[in-house]
User: Fold this.
Amino acid sequence: MQKLEVFGANKLKGQIEISGSKNASLPILAASLLSYKKVYLNNLPRVKDIETMTSLLKSLGSKIKFKNNKLIIDNTKQNKRFASYSLVKTMRAGILVLGPLLAKFGNAKVSLPGGCAIGTRPVDIHLDALSKLGVKYKIIQGYVYATAPKGLIGSKIRFSKISVGATENLIIAASLAKGTTILSNCAIEPEIKDLVNFLIKSGCNIKWIAKRSLKINGVKEISDISYSIMFDRIEAGTYLIAAAVTEGNLKIKNVIPKIIKTEINILKKIGAKINIKKNEIHIIGNKKIKSINIKTAAYPGFPTDLQAQIMVLLCKANKHSNIKEDIFENRFMHVAELNRMGAKISINGNKAKVNGNVNFAGAELMATDLRASVSLILAALNAKGKSVINRIYHLDRGYENIEKKLKKVGAKIRRVN
Ligand code: UD1
Assistant:
């Protein structure tokens, strides 16, 4: 099994190009199933989750190839409606094929996503909302058997809780439903706006009618489309924190800074110097880091996907900070490993008290999920001595060329077998 070796305590300097967003690519790939024609996608990150989603599309009958960095999906013969456990178990976003398959064929059999380390992560909100579009479903031996006897029929749906995935599944399904759907209490993450832009460009009739509400008039089919995926805001946030934690000097390129305003403002409050240009953020880390209290929230709040990374930075603050995790119930698995490196973090339910003034020391470490893995790299970059990070397959799900990008800006990091 591959590992990463990191020799810490040197400052990062240079520039990093941010890749396309994994979390925008996944629903857009699922939405491509609506098409009977061709879909061309640019700026997809080459990471494991994208490979898993394209394997899932292939298993459903899509023909897929990469040409000049562009993914071409040919759905002229796409006709299968069965998403197997083997493909959905490693990636929860597999459930996003349910909406488009139902919209296109009126029936589908899709595996429930496997249990996930960061929480139970049910799909009840997806299923409840789909049933309001006329879907009948049963869950048998881990599979959702769903049919829409009269086809999908537009409806008024208010999500009981803000869910990124459920909002995406419903937007995609309602795009081909008969009549009008109004979705309210939607998630408004930038990746959802990217999905909506993709669908509008392919001929769907979707309008934002209020901050968290969408009006979707179903169309009969979508047209050939070429689309470029937005930047990965979590990757950008991770490298901004990497600069801050190593007292480095980095230019983060290919971004739209206003999309990550919340993160930029927090980093400024903590003490980093930040200069913003049109598609670039220049950050200079400060030796003095101020403590701060943070709680994760749906966009435009602070993202849960950056909670582990900011925690590493707050270990270096002048006083203690508090972090409240309000999205997932079990997303502090990085804490035990960070404490083994010298952090002093205590957990009480969904709250973490992060003591400051920590000097990290390199250690042998175990990655537990995608963002936890990267937080260990950040701590290792700051630590004295060598760290070895095991189980980095988690990392490969979502960070494109991470060691290459870090090496280019001066990190001592290498992958070993
Ligand atoms: C997406 C992101 C993930 C991010 C999360 C929150 C992708 C591929 N993944 O995950 O990186 O951390 O948003 O920003 O884009 N819930 C239910 N029932 C449901 C659905 C969700 O109870 O049917 C709960 C979840 O357990 C969680 C909360 O709602 O506690 C938010 O989950 P959701 O927004 O749906 O996250 P994902 O779409 O899974």
Summary: The CA atoms of residues 51 and 397 lie 9 Å apart. The chain has a mean pLDDT of 95. The chain is about 30% helix and 25% strand. The radius of gyration is 21 Å.
